[in-house]
Amino acid sequence: MIVIRDKENPMDGIGPRLREERERLGMTQRVFGDIGGVEPNAQGKYESGERSPRVDYLAALAARGVDALYVLSGTRTPVPLEGLSTDESGLLGAFRQLSCDDQAALWHLLRRLTNNDKSRQTMRPLTVERQAFLTEGMR
Fold first, then answer.
1. What is the pLDDT of residues 2-50, one digit of tens each?
2. CA 115, 121, 122, 127 torsion: positive or negative?
3. Which of 19, 83, 90, 111 is placed for a possible disulfide with 47 were both Cys, Cβ 3.0 to 4.6 Å?
4. 33 and 55: one domain?
């Protein structure tokens, strides 16, 4: 049996995140405890940090929509991007590897290419020097 302890600061730990997930799903402590197979008083102790939840309890909650990764680590589970083609997925992966500046430049280019840049009408034409700078920066 694996038991997870969060003794450092219970307010920053599993208990508050567990309560947050229960409230996000609109459930009472009784309903949440029933799903996890524990009594309401045990549920209250989990949320207050007095007791640590067991793995089978967390697995049962996860099967009903609780973000177990968030409860355990504070990091939300990424939402899957269904329906992306292999090329689209590859582009997204490459984009995520770019620096913030390169991502901003790519967003600018995409807005220009798709005519979604509202500021386009108010922009002055690029000078030859500026065009050369941007071209070199895109390499």
1. 545 444 443 469 999 999 999 999 999 999 999 999 998 999 999 999 9
2. positive
3. 19
4. yes
